[in-house]
């Protein structure tokens, strides 16, 4: 995808949406289908639909219905110097998106603009040249730019999510755009592949069942890392890109957590003792990690210093607490807990202020977006996206999808 930019003519930097402040009132925005010289096109409609879907997933926008849009040529002008804003203010649009989408020999030429109708200002403009099949890339990128312009933070619409795609007899690792589009398998092992874990530099580790029914850790598109004939579970990456795994390599019946080198050899045990230890997740600075363990009897969550410090218990309620994930912002840990059914909870990193985010009874495997503003989880065999406070829970992607792992920025 090639893209360029327009410079806003007179807009000054300002924050339109205070994303850290809870509000029941959403920000009204109008997204007009981009047009060509001959009027509306299927490419323009597709692009606008994806863009509107992204903004809806954000949970902070009120998408004004198209039947309320003004029809005058001035209001619909695609040249930033000619657009008339007063018709848009009459319908309450605090932001307006429009542009052009023209099919040419070298691809689809897209120009998108963001305006503040009340101030009469052109806030943002971008040019893209994409294949018709890649229109979603342009839409996601512009949605990210809208988020940056209106909230002061970049969006995550150009990121992807890895997950387990369940078939009739096999499970493969798959990847999709964060809105659920472009879902496709990235393994063809024809066995049971589970627990994808996406590193900050774009690698995906996972657990696969070998022909002799051992559970080994492998890389998507790469080699098998463990070949010890043991149970190897819950691969997870440190922020510096070192892989860790929970393994019963000593055949004790309990899994311990190890750091690995690039060749797949265990170099350091970081959690071990009575009961299983697994499903580790590292703090953004790499100094600490949280994990699930049976060392206190039932499965609970613990935190430890990666340098070998003491272990601190974080949860004391709930019969099964599992799959903890440390927020990229460093302030929260999300996890699943069994309370009549599996649901998603969040707490401070010291175990205080536990809050329930879902109440469906079938939600597991939380994973944070790279900006810490969203979580993905699997609810009833479907990946769902929600805001960090649990609001705007929205299913995305295909059915039969489990164990999501949210990928990093900029690796598509």
Instruction: Estimate the global geometry from the Cα principal axes.
Output: elongated
- Give a count of the beta strands, DSSP E runs of length 2 or more: 31
Compute the CA-based radius of gyration: 23 Å
From the N-terminal CA to the C-terminal CA, the straight-line distance is 11 Å
Strand content: 35-45%
- Average pLDDT taken over every residue: 93
Oligomer: single chain
Tell me roughly what share of residues is in helical segments. under 10%
Low-confidence stretches: none
> How would you write the strand order of the largest sheet?
1-8-7-6-2-5
Number of helical stretches of at least 4 residues: 3
Annotation keywords:
single chain; six-stranded mixed sheet; 3 helices; four-stranded antiparallel sheet; mainly beta; 31 strands; 412 residues
SSE layout and pairing:
Layout: E1 2-6, E2 27-31, E3 35-36, E4 39-40, H1 42-58, E5 61-63, H2 86-90, E6 95-104, E7 107-116, E8 121-130, H3 135-151, E9 160-166, E10 171-177, E11 184-185, E12 193-198, E13 204-209, E14 215-219, E15 232-237, E16 243-247, E17 256-260, E18 266-271, E19 277-282, E20 288-293, E21 300-305, E22 311-313, E23 321-326, E24 332-338, E25 342-348, E26 355-356, E27 363-368, E28 374-379, E29 382-387, E30 394-399, E31 401-406
Parallel strand pairs: 2-5, 2-6
Antiparallel strand pairs: 1-8, 3-4, 6-7, 7-8, 9-10, 9-31, 10-11, 12-13, 13-14, 15-16, 16-17, 17-18, 19-20, 20-21, 21-22, 23-24, 24-25, 25-26, 27-28, 28-29, 29-30
């Amino acid at each position: 995808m090639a893209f360029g930019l327009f410079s806003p003519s007179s807009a000054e930097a300002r924050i339109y949406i205070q994303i850290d402040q809870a509000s029941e009132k959403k920000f009204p925005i109008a997204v007009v289908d981009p047009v060509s010289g001959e009027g509306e096109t299927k490419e323009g409609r597709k692009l606008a639909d994806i863009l509107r879907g992204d903004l809806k997933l954000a949970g902070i926008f009120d998408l004004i219905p198209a039947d309320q849009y003004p029809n005058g040529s001035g209001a619909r002008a695609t040249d930033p110097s000619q657009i008339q804003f007063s018709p848009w203010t009459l319908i309450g649009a605090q932001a307006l998106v429009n542009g052009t989408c023209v099919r040419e020999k070298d691809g689809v030429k897209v120009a998108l603009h963001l305006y503040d109708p009340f101030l009469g200002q052109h806030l943002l403009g971008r040019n893209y040249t994409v294949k018709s099949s890649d229109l979603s890339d342009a839409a996601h990128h512009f949605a990210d730019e809208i988020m940056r312009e209106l909230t002061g933070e970049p969006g995550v619409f150009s990121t992807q999510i890895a997950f387990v795609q369940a078939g009739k007899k096999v499970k493969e690792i798959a990847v999709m755009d964060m809105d659920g589009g472009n879902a496709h398998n990235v393994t063809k092992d024809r066995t049971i592949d589970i627990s994808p874990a996406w590193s900050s530099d774009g690698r995906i580790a996972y657990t696969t069942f070998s022909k002799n029914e051992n559970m080994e850790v492998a890389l998507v598109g790469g080699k098998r890392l463990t070949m010890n004939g043991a149970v190897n579970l819950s691969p997870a990456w440190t922020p510096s890109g070192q892989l860790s795994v929970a393994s019963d390599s000593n055949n004790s019946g309990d899994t311990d957590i190890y750091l690995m080198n690039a060749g797949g050899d265990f170099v350091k045990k970081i959690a071990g003792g009575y009961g299983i230890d697994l499903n580790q997740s590292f703090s953004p600075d790499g100094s600490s990690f949280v994990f699930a363990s049976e060392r206190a009897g039932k499965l609970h969550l613990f935190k430890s210093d990666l340098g070998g410090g003491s272990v601190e218990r974080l949860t004391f309620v709930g019969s099964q607490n599992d799959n903890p994930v440390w927020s990229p912002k460093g302030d929260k840990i999300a996890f699943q807990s069994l309370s009549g059914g599996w649901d998603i909870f969040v707490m401070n990193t010291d175990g205080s202020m536990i809050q329930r985010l879902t109440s469906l009874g079938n939600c597991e495997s939380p994973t944070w977006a790279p900006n810490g503003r969203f979580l993905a989880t699997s609810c009833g065999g479907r990946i769902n996206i929600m805001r960090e406070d649990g609001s705007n829970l929205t299913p995305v992607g295909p059915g039969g999808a489990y164990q999501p792992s949210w990928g990093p920025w900029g690796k598509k």
